[in-house]
Write a structure and sequence with these properties.
The complex is a heterodimer of chains A (172) and B (265). Chain A has 172 residues and is mostly helical. Chain A contains 6 helices and 2 strands, in the order ααββαααα. In chain A, strands 1-2 form a two-stranded antiparallel ribbon. In chain A, helix 4 packs antiparallel against helix 5. Helices cover 67% and strands 3% of the residues of chain B. Chain B has 11 helices and 2 strands. A two-stranded antiparallel ribbon of chain B has the order 1-2. The longest helix of chain B has 31 residues. Chain B is globular, with a radius of gyration of 24 Å. The chains are: A mainly alpha (172), B mainly alpha (265). Chains A and B meet through helix 2, helix 3, helix 5 and helix 6 of A and helix 2, helix 5, helix 6, helix 7 and helix 8 of B.
Amino acid sequence: MTTKEMFKVELRDLVLLGFVVAIKVVLSRFSLGTTVVHVSLGFIGSVMLGYLFGPVWGAIGGGISDFVSSALFGNQGGFFIGFTLSAMIGPLIYGLLFYKKPVKIWRIILATILVTVVVNIGLNTLWVHLMYGMDLKAALIQRIPKETIVPWIEMVVTYFVLQAISRVKIRR
Amino acid sequence: MSKILIGRYISGNSLVYKMDPRGKLLATIFFILIVFMANNPLSYLIVTVFSLVAVAATKLKPKIFWDGVKPLIWLILFTSFLQLFFTVGGKVYWRWTIFAVSSYGIENAIFIFIRFTVIILISTVMTVTTMPLEIADAIEWILTPLKLIKVPVDKIALVMSIALRFVPTLFDETFKIMNAQRSRGADFNNGGLITRAKAVTPLLVPLFISSLETAIDLSTAMESRGYRGDEGRTKFRVLKWSKYDLVNLGYFAILIVLLLVFRTH
């Protein structure tokens, strides 16, 4: 597959990509949960990007969503290319596992665990370490409590979201 | 009704506002790397003074910058404390199992606190003094070299501007849908985990369907206005470099030189 074929996309899908990116930006300003655990809904946008547009355009959409939210709301913790990369890899993983495939529980569990381990625990810890010179061990300890609870909530939400979105896709 | 403010741009006309968004964005991105060169008290002092001068140059109220730091203040403090207990070296003042407070730890905690704060301050200067559309144009300009490896930068710019334009619209749409569902008994803030997860669907499906419809309408409208792909088009909004960007560049160069001289090698 050449690069040209890889990036080939119709205008209508390109415009829809813009809308899904906007949905992701909007959703990431909302959160779900009790006073103790807050789950930002932004991951739903990543799931939609991966599921609807596949790994390549999903990843591009993820990167754009990071730019757009930085432009609109400012990047909490500074402009850093690493977090753009993190925003790209989430939809990439979801795209590899969900795009043009039937919704299956094992895919959802695998994708969520992969995103949590690779992006949230792995890369984001690395970025904080690189950006602020924070001790890796300390950065990890700070992250672990949240990342042991949140993925399970994300899996449940992802399941319902994919069910709903796949119904819309069939109707189209 | 909506508590969420869209866009952090605050109008003003100080020197910082007259600088080109591309220069400001580049300076912000490089600042994060430059801060890294600081490694002793004097160099951290230089970085702090540099960012405070930049903040002062915007001629905006300090509260605006405090609002930028406020949401992250607990994270910053927590991070500094962790750093305090996990860095070992120098004179040890207190020790308990794996935790220890040492002179090296205290120094490191203060450095991390400063680094966090100055990075947030400079990023706030960027977002507060530049309009979102200008930031998007600057990002597009920075991405241009990616054309060399055949990345569709123009398509990315198109998606970015559509998303930027429709975020406020979709915000309104989201609140409308939430209220419509609430008026018929939907509850977005109560119930167990599964109930709350399910409550996302009556919000998301209408939002997605309306986006789908608008996307179809918009692409039809674009095609009827003669949009035939991104190549061979002219630009209406053009960014221009000015003499104020030399101030930006010069200020930045002075910081780098000072840091190179005063850091511990």
